## 1
Amino acid sequence: MAGSSAFHTETELLDRVRALHPLIRSHTARAERQRRVTPEVVEALGDSGILRMNVPRHYGGYQTSLRTQIDALSKVSAACGSAGYLALSQVAAAFIAALFPDEAQDEIFAGPDVRISSTLVPDSKAVPVDGGYTVDGKAPFATGCQDADWHLLTALDDTGEGPPELLWLAIPMTDLRILDDWDFSGLTGSGSNTVVARNVRVPAHRVLRVGPLLEGEFPSRRNSSDPFYRIPLILLFCAWTTASVIGLARGALAEFGERIHRRGITYTFYQHQHEAAVTHLQFAEAEMKVSAAELIVADLVGLLESRAATEEPYTTVERARARAQCGYVARLCKEAGDLVGSASGASSLQREVPVQRMVRDLNALNLHSFINPATNLELYGRVLSGLEPDTPFL
């Protein structure tokens, strides 16, 4: 991966990611068949430097601006939703790793192109032992785990005293087992398998407590005063996830724009779909939905970047609104995908036609428990109505 250090500006990073589009797109069908992103694409993503975007500079990373991160990740998703989601997951995991104690970071970031996967569902238990924890359990939806060097596993601190505490534990992938159980109709090629820990010993310096993290406290001495790593993690998740849906919707619009010049509308006199008035209405409405979604994303990113510069605290309303924006962007992009999908005809159901895959991937992302539009709108509505948000994940 020596090529990933060959450029020095964010513009060059975007250029390299953009240049991967033909390669990534050519591997989408194979990724779906194999239920994981192909090794060629994984390697190319590493070579592009995209996985360095949240790696601390003192380890050779870039600490790339959030706006550029969204642009880069959306470009990958426009070519392949599964590859985009893998890149997003590993970019986010690198940010989380940078919040761990510095001793753990020295191990994890032994090279700046390290690949890190993570899970959010705490289906594992961490039992305190002398000098750390012993971890047992399963962690589903571990996107990219098959190509990762490290995994950040969520587990509950099983002390038996009071409510269990949620932990993130950094574990080498060699200490974990991967179940080949990813068989889903959306993001099919993302390789989001389950990882299994069996009596895995994790030293104390490789533990990150989620409760204090949600309050803005984390143990890294080197990064704790860096505004780049002071942006609340949950709000970053809101921004990062918009990259996947925006990229997929843009990809679907591009495919639709090409397809309408190659086919007619069956059982009508239209030999060319692009000449039909109904197509004009469908295309325009889908475009406006994605454009509206992009404006919402720009507003969210603008807020996060401005607060990073001033370190002014966020209000509860702003935090809840970010969750709502994340879900609403996903809904708008799904609606745009459904429009062009339904206008693409029965022939678009062939697996080789990209639009049907993009529609499936957009649906899958809208079902994600963190992104789900209805849940996030309810949360925001509670806060607007003067009630407590009823969740610590703000």
## 2
Amino acid sequence: MQNIRHTPVAPTRTQRLTSGGEIDAHHHDDHQIVYASHGIIAITTDAGSWVAPATRALWIPAGTVHRHQAHGELDLHFVGLPTTQNPLGLDTPTVLSVSPLLRELIVAYTRTPDDEGPQRRRLRAVLLDQLRVSPQQPLHLPTPSTPLLRELHAILRADPADNRSLDELGRQIGAGARTLSRHLRRELGLTYPQWRTQIRLHHALILLADQTPITAVAHQCGWSSASTFIDVFRRTFGHTPGARPPKPSD
């Protein structure tokens, strides 16, 4: 990432981003929670990318160089936490499940960032308690470093619906299926079907944010039917792709 901006304090604030909008590469000396109450937010680091719909939030540890990209119109909420407060005990970016209560807490806490009164301090304490029990979600799409896997990654990102076997794809890039499988297990800890599903789900979230019909999303991401896509989506995210979380209270 070029032209990396350093912001010592991770601000607590709200921000709107239009679809396709970006926040350039930067890093903080503080931890940060990033939550989009509307739309899909993606962060990218040298280690990969993480995507979060409105039922998920992103944990970004202090010092992590990252950039944001909006998919759909975004209402973003940022919560900055000093390094002395790490309720999750995590040192890598992570996607967290956001319960209805945690959603309301994040939105309420970021609504008045300059308020340092006792009521807001109590709100922060409850927010931290809820973060401690927030389940982590396997929504990380790692960026491979092995040249062969980078070639394979580029092919699948360009066309997630590519249903060729690993053996067929391997012939295109000059490697056997066993070699590619070994690299995947060693570097990413994933089988080829698991990795391909992660790529497809990331792409599906972006298409859904752009209001693409579910049947079209299933087709463009390589699932044999809309029902198969819905089943995979539900097992991963806990709800169907057509479901929308309730809007936070005003």
